[in-house]
Every structure is written in C-alpha cells, then in structure tokens.
Amino acid sequence: MAVELFDVTKTYSGGAGVRALDGVSVGFAAGTFNAVMGPSGSGKSTLLQCAAGLDRPDSGKVLLAGQEIGQLREPQLTQARRRLVGFVFQSYNLLDSLSLWHNVLLPQRLAGVRPDRAWAREVMRRVGLAGREQDRPAQLSGGQRQRVALARALAARPEVIFADEPTGALDLATGREVLDLLREAVADLGTTIVMVTHGPAAAARADRVVFLADGRITTELAAPSAEQVAAQMTAVTNGRAVASVGSNR
Amino acid sequence: MIRLAIATLRRHRGAYVGTFLATVLAVALLAGGGLLLYSVLIAEPPADRFAATTLAVAGDREISLETVTTKQKKEGKSKVKRKVKSERLTGAGTLPADLAGRIAAVPGVAGVVADAAFPVQVTARDGRALRGADDAPVIGHGWVSATLTPYTMRTGRPPGTGEVVLDADVAARGGVRVGDELRVTTRTGTRTLRVSGIAAPAGRDGLPAQGALFLADGDVAAVSGLAGPTAVGVFGAPGTDVAALRARVHAVAGDAQVLAGDDRVRADLPGALPDYIGPISIFGFVIGITAFAAVFVLTGTVTLSVRQRLRELALLRAIGATPGQLRRLLGVESAVLAGFAALPAAPLGVLFAEVVAARFMTLGAVPAQFTVRVNVPVLLLAAVAGVLVTFVAARIAGRRAVRIAPTQALVETATAPASGTFVRALVALVTAAGAVGVLSFVPLDGPLGMGMSFVSSALLLCAVAAVGPLLVRLLAAVVARPFGLGGLIARTEHRRVAAVAVPLVLMFAINTVMLLNSALLSRLTGQEQVAREAPATAQVTGDGGLPLDTARRLADVPGVTGVAAQLPTRVIVAQGGKPEDYPAQGLLVGGPDTALDLDVRAGALTADGFAASAALVRQYGWRIGDRVPLWLPDGKQVQLRLSMVYGRARGFGELVLPAGLVAAHDPRGLVRTVGLRYAPGTAERIHAEFPALRLVPALDAAPAGDASNQQGAWELMVVISLGFTAIAVVNTFAIAAAARRREYADLRLVGATARQLQRLAGGEALVTVIVGLLLGSAVTGIVVGAFSAAQDGVLRWIVEPGTHAVMVGGVAALGLLAGVLPTRLMVRRRSLATQV
User: Fold this and answer.
1) DSSP state of B54
2) Which of A98, A102, A171 to mutate: most B Cβ within 10 Å?
3) Chain B, nearest residue to A94 by Cα
4) Is B213 helix (H, G, I), strand (E, B) or coil?
5) Which residues numbered 459-488 in B keep a CB inside 8 Å of some CB on A?
C-alpha cells in the first residue's frame, strides 16, 4: 500500500464544529490511479490533506509508503512529504517569480538534492512544454500551467501524487489531456495517484473510485464507467439527510 | 463611493495597518514640527519691564533697508515696487539725552523716565556668577527705571553712589544679603559695589528671563558707557487718550518709535529678551526634514499597498467598474484612512513637539522660556497635508494600476502594466540635475552649506526612488547571484525589492549625510581654532568676560610679547538691499609677536580698517581697500575699509573689527578670551596682578560653546529622523512580507520547510539591504564628497570611519531583522492546510 489511513477523524473547530472525517479507514495500492468523490462538504479535501501530511488528523494513523507520518514533527514531516509526495492543485500553485524550469526543479532544490536535469527535461517533453523552460507562469494558459504543475510533481519522482481537482479549472479537452498525463504516469512510472474530483468523467479514468459522504466512506467502485460514477454520485448525494451547504475549499 | 471605500477598509483591516501606521507617524511628525515652528514664530517676550508705563519710546531695534525698483511697462506707465528687508539688532541704540525732557513737556504726560538697560556680569564674593531664572542674564539699570515695572523695595534702601539693589530672585539664587559686596563687570571695567537693598515687582520675585540690578542714577553713565538712555518710559496723566498722546509724543520723538500696549516690550534691550532667531531656523530645519521624510515614506507605503491589491482591482474591473471609479475608490479610501489616522496623530504630534522642545532646551539651542503652544489650525493643517499626500499618492499609484485589464482578474496573477520607464527616467534626470546644480553652484562652505547639502541629498533620493526599479534590476542581477533561490526570487521581484530598498536608502543617506557633514564641520572648526590659537602661549579668560581695558593692561605686563583679545559680537552687512547678520569679532592685537594666526590671505590688519573671511569676500565681491557700510549691534552705521582677508573663520567670525569700536557699540562689549605670548615666568606675574583671571595653556582651550550646541542640535535631528525612517523601513518590510503569504504557501506545498522559507526571506532581505546600502552610499558619497571638497578642497567620503560603520551596520541589521522577522512570525503562526 502506498497510502493507508486507519480510523482517521478530523473535526474543524469553530461554528458547529464540523466533523470532516469520521473514522475513515482506506488504503491506496502502489501503482494505482485512485479517485475520491463526494458532494461538497463531504470531507474529500480533508481526506487528501490528511493523507498527504498537509494537515494532522485528530485521531487515527496515516501511513505514507509504510511510514507513519502522524508521529513526525516539523521539519521532518515536510522532509518526508517532499521525498514521497507530489501535488497538483486546481489553482496550479506555481511561483510567478520563477521561470518554468526553476519551478519544475524547485522541490528538488528545496530538498537539497542535486536536481535530475535530464529527467526534468524528459518530463517537460512529456507534458508537451519542451522549449518553454525560460517562460514565466504568467505567460501560459491554464492547461499549460497545470501541465507545469504536473511536471513539477513528476520531476521529483514521488511515490504518490495527490491531485485536488486538477481539471477543475480546465475545459473538457484540456482536462482530458491532463488526465491522460496522469494515467501515463501510473502506467509508465508506477506512480500512485490519489485524485479528488467532482467530475464523473475524470473519476472514470481511475482504477478505483471511493465515495465519501458526511466524512465517511460509503461505497467504492472498481474501474467504473462515467455513467456508473454519475449514478453512484446521485445516490450518495440524495442519501444525505440534509442538502449540502458547505464548501470544500 | 465613500460607503464602498469604508467597507473595503473594514474588510481589509489587516492589509491597511501598514499604511495606517505610516500615516499616523507622518501626520504626527508634520503636526509636531508645525507646532514647534508655530510656537517659536509667535513666541512673545515673557514679561514686560515697561508694564507700568503708558508709552515706551525707543530707537529702532532692527536695520531696515528699502529697495525701490521701477519697472517700465508699456504705454509709458511705470510700476514702482518697494521692498523692505530688515534684520534684527542684538543691541540697543541710545536716544538723545534731551529727549526725555522734550517728551515731559508734551501735554498729557504726567511723568517720564529715561531708562538705561545694559548687560552686567555680577560675581558674588566667593567668585560665583549671579544669574536669573533659567540662566537668564542680569541687566543693569538706574534706580529710576524701577518705576517702569514697577519694582518696589523689599528690604534695605535705594542705592546710593557705589551701591546696588538686586531683584529678589537673583539675590535668592546667589544667597546675597543687604550689605554684601558684589563685583560688577561691564565693558567699562570691574567695580566692587555694596548691596543696599532687595527689590521685586509686585507679586513675584523677579521678571522671567531677565534679572535686574539697579545702580544709583548718577553711576549709570560711568558703569554702562552709554551716551544716553536706551528708552524713555512715558506715564500719561489719568484720563488721557492713549492714541492721542501717542501722536503728540511721536511729534517730538523724531526717528524714535513710540510704542503702546504689548509693543512696549520692544523698547527693552534685545539681549534681555529670549532670542528666538536661532530656534526659528532650527525648527524650520526640523520641519523640513520631517516633512520630506514623511512625504517620501508615505508615498512609498501607499504605492506599495495599492500595488498589492492589483488582483482585487482587476476583479472590480471585471464586474464592471470603470478605471475612473477605481481611481476614485482608491482616492476616497486613502483619504478616509488618512482622516482616521489623523485622530491619534494629533495628540502624538503634540507629544512629539513637547519632547523635542524639551531636548532642545536641555541642549541650550532653544531658550528655556520656550513653551509649545497647541494650535488647532496647525494640527488641522498637518492632518490635511497627510490626507492630501496619501490621496495624491494613491491616485498616482492607481493611475497605472487601474489600467489593468479586467481579464487579469481571471488569470492567476495580476501584474501591473509596465511602468512608464520614460517618465521615471525623466523625473530622475530632473531631480538629479537639480542636485548637481545645488552642489556645484551654491557655496557649500557658507552658512547655507548644511541646509543645501540636505536639499541635494533629498533631490538625489527622489531620483533614486524614481528609477529605483530599474536600478534595482541592474544591481540585483549582480548582487543576488550568490544567494541561491532567495536571490533568484529577488532578481525577478525587483519591483518589490525596490519598494523595500528605497526606505533603506532614505534612512541611510539622509542620516549619514547629516552626521558626517556636521562631524566634518565641527572637526574643521576645532582644527581651525587650534591652528588660530597655536601661536599663543596661553589663553586668558575671566568669569563671563573681561573689560577691554583689562586686556590692554595685560599687554603691558613685562614679559608679554604678544596679545590678541577677542570680543565676540554680531555685525550686519547689507548688499543688494538685504541686510544680513554675521558673527564677528572685535580684535585687539599688540606686542611684537603675533598671538593669533588667522591665516591671512591678503592685506594686513590696520587700526581703523576691518577684515573679512575669504568666504564672505567672495560672496560679496569685495576687494582690499573697498569702503563697506557695516552696522554694529546698537544700530550704529560705520564705513570701514577692507584691509585684510583671512581664512580661519570657523568658530571665530566672518568679520574682524577694531576692538575699541566693538566695545563702544556692543552692549556687552566684553573680551571672551585673550591670547597671550610671553616669556617663561610671566604667568606668575599675571597671576599676582590679576588674581581673578584664569590662564589656560593654549592646547587645553575648550572649543567655542556655539559649535557644541549646534552639534548637539544636529545629533538630535538625526535621532528624530533615524527613528522615523527606521519605523518606515520596518513597516515597509512588514507590508511586503504580508503580501507574500501566497508565495510562501506555494513554496510550502512543494516541500519547503519553515526554516527554508526563513532562509529564503533572509536571502532576499540580504539582497535588499546590499542594494539599499549601495544606492545609499552613492547618494552619501556624492553629497559628502562635494560638501567636503567645498570646505577645504579635500575630497572625503568616509569622514568618520566609526560613525560610518555604525550607520552601515545599524541600517543592515535593521533591514535584515525587518526582512526576516515578519516571515518568521507568519510561517510559524499559520498551519499549512489553511495556506492552500
């Protein structure tokens, strides 16, 4: 298992004290493409943040590549994260003051390892941005930026790539290209991908889809079609006692 | 619009803290400086010695010159322009001796008093000098003057010949009782007089700011050396109309002024009233510096904060706001902000004025009687100025920012359209040219030197601020290389680096220039004094000064081969219709050897000619042999021939006149120091003959008091501007750091540890500091170099290695601290997930 969560609970203080995760246990096998789905406020993003070590669960255990990260304190946690994990976010999160090339090499520079330049060039070629290394993020379209973010994640050869709505800000065609690249990473490089998404079409590209509602895992589907995912989503959403009012941001 | 503006302000409370803080401080400084200048401008003499009189008659206490220029206009018409310029006298002229009698004969006059006022040096038996409250001078009068105030006897009886009456305040301070003997020194000599009584004005022990010593009326002429009364007090008969009486007295008074009401105080001796001329220029300078720093800092802060809201502005554009609306929004927002900032700023300004005034009074640069007057219009004016500056700065910063395309709001990052490089370069060129003009055409070794070096550094700073982003891009490209990722970010974020580096440049340049220039001046002054007095074996001084006659007798002591007695005074020179007051010396030289080396450049001292410093001769274009009109402290005009030009004027005076002439026309007229050259063994003879005098070997002579006063005032000004600019630096760094939250969050996501972020911020801060110091050193070097070269032809950049090092180190330390600390707080406080 590349990522394992055991009985993870997370409550956000303030307001009503929302229980975002309520005893979630789930594992994501190495070299697989996983999608996490659920209505807004179901705890998708919290699950991802806890699994990736961006946030700490209130209780329960999180294992990243077999290592329990709940025990780690800063800066060991950050070091473990940058060794094992890559990120792709809806809002790209590139550094505007750095060129694409520097952005892609940034995690390795921060880790203090000698950047694998040949591999970085190969990654840039794979995402179709060879020759644009010296451009700035501001000069790119949204799809191109997301591909840079993906290149940045891949350049460090992580065990797991966590993707939070990677296609959320992209049009269908561009989104499909990004998903193709993610699939390729799983197939060619054996990377594990955990992707949070709203889109049934995006989720249908995954090997496995986990459904979340009110902080609990309700069902999961193996290699479903987009129609199956959509049907399951409708069921999950209607199954809730009250209409969803929260937001997952 | 205003509701929207207030709503934005409330929503972005955090983001505005920086601007708010800068505005509060700027307005407080403006208010404080304004109050100081206002208070000193309206400062009134604290007490009226002529309180009991109806009218006071006195000669002019200023030299006024009228220039009439006739402008030929078309159609044969001509326009006559009259300009009156005046300069205040430091002494009082005398009135005709028979004037009092003539006024007494005017109908409606019940009585007249011919008043004499002259400074006296009073020493008690034990050798202590007697002074009034707050070290006020003691002024001598005839007993008849007691009725002007009036002073009435407390104990004892009025003075007979050889006797004096003291006011109760001076007597209490000196522990003097009736029957004691006092030594009284005036320009006519030293006398021992017996205290016959103690007198006081009604309800108090003495007048503030001046002590009183009354002589027998018959002794006045001999002791004071005055040829007539300095004023005439007039008592009107009961029921007389003051205005009518004034007109009738005026008719017989000739050139003399007839003063009524609050103006009567102007009939008093100028030296007996606190002198506010020096403080006016000091406080003028304070407000000049603070106003420049305040406006400079405020503009920078407002610009920075507007630029950081580009995204929000773009968003507003996207939902339909026109550029005009955004400009208005920014303007109103900043005006509201500044308006609120003015509320705490006003009391802060009053506090600032009080603290600064107190410090200056302790230094002796401002009379102890000075009080800060809180004036609401001045405070309002400061607030309005603050609002105006923020408003204009926001509009200018907004002008570029609001042109941002609405589509930018939808893009991840908004960038302002490239700034007008041409406009920036033009502004920089004009201001830099102005600075070069000031530095090359204004004589920096003259009295304007310090002020002009400040003006030129201010102009250079404006140039640096204008081309800051361009300069920083060039410099950072070189400087940033060794600083890895932080340097890389600094290089691409050159605008942010520039915004933060400019206050550093301001802080370093303006304070270093002031410190180094004033240190250079005081060092040169000290050196010149040592060089001037080098030929003398010893300097002779007495308590508060000695009569000229004593100096003459010193010259006659066997064994003395050279003597040079200096009588400090002020002389007014007029050229082009503008009278100007200069420090001068009455000089008595004698003996075969010289005891004073003035570094004579041309000519030689003659008994009835005058000498002038090379700087003054150059300024007025005089030549040896020219006859020049000069005014002495009592208003007496003399025509003297220029006979010598000398070099060593610092801490001495710009003009040298015959000592006898000065002693006759300066109310004090006392010798400050006598340089003596003598054979071994003569010192004992002098001690025996003049037991009250002090002999100081030439090398130990203390530097002139004025110079150290000025040095202190400069240092205080530097402290003020250091404090303000330091706060500005910290503030700017904090604003810049707050805007980097997003950048930090992104960095954290890709795996940067908290420590790495701090190192990154440190790297950028280091680049910023180095860039700031380089630019600051360039400004400092240009101004200090030009100033130094103008003083004595020697080009210096690092005048005082110690001071320079402290400034470099202090500014660097502050910049690094301010660059690292906010990041440290921010990174630590926020949990990672909330940064995503």
Assistant:
1) S
2) A98
3) B746
4) strand
5) 484-485, 488
Contact list in A for residue B761 (CB cut-off 8 A) is: none
Give the list of residues 6+ apart from residue B313 with CB closer than 8 angstroms, or none: B326, B401, B402, B404, B414
Q: What is the pLDDT of residue B77?
A: 65
Chain B residues whose CB is inside 8 A of the A79 CB are 751, 753
Q: CB-CB: which of A54, A74, A92 is closest to B753?
A: A74
Establish, for the pair of chains A and B, how many residue pairs have beta carbons separated by less than 8 Å. Answer: 77
Query: What pLDDT does residue A192 have?
Result: 94
Residue B370 token pair: 């000075």
pLDDT for residue B141: 92
CA angle A91, A2, A209 (to 5 degrees): 60
What is the number of alpha carbons within 13 Å of residue B713 lying toward its C-beta? 22
Kind of pairing, strands B538-541 and B673-678?
Answer: antiparallel
Place of tokens 């030594």: B183
Q: How confident is the model at residue B446 (pLDDT cuts 50, 70, 90)?
A: low
Which residues in chain A have their CB less than 8 angstroms from residue B832's CB? Answer: 54-55
Q: Does the interface predicted TM-score (ipTM) exceed 0.85? A: no
The whole-angstrom separation of Cα B520 and Cα B788 is: 8
Minimal Cα–Cα distance from A35 to chain B, Å? Answer: 20
Q: Which of A199-208, B256-265, B415-424 has the least mean pLDDT?
A: B415-424
Residue B76 has a CB neighbour count (10 Å cut-off) of 6
Provide the CA B798 distance to its chain's centre, in angstroms: 25
Best CA proximity match to B768, nearest among B798, B730, B801, B797: B730
Cα–Cα dist B102/B569, whole Å? 33
Q: Which residues of A touch B743 (CB under 8 A)?
A: 95-97
> If DSSP states are collapsed to H, E and C, what string results for chain A?
CCEEEEEEEEEECCCCCEEEEEEEEEEECCCCEEEEECCCCCCHHHHHHHHHCCCCCCEEEEEECCEECCCCCCCHHHHHHHHHEEEEECCCCCCCCCCHHHHHHHHHHHHCCCCCHHHHHHHHHHCCCCCCCCCCHHHCCHHHHHHHHHHHHHHCCCCEEEEECCCCCCCHHHHHHHHHHHHHHHHHHCCEEEEECCCHHHHCCCCEEEEEECCEEEEEEECCCHHHHHHHHHHHHHCCCCCCCCCCC
Closest CA to B410 of A172, A121, A169: A169
Residue B56, helix vs strand vs coil: strand
B280 contacts B41 by C-beta, under 8 angstroms: yes
* Per-residue pLDDT band at B447 (split at 50, 70, 90): low
Contact B836 A92 (CB under 8 A): no
Calpha distance B109→B235 (Å, rounded): 6
Domains in chain B: boundaries: 1-43+276-417, 99-272, 423-530+701-836, 543-692
A142 or B829, which is more confident?
A142
For residue range B649-661, list pLDDT tens digits in order: 888 888 999 988 8
All domains of chain A, ordered by start, with CATH?
3-238 (3.40.50.300)
pLDDT > 70 in chain B, percent: 89
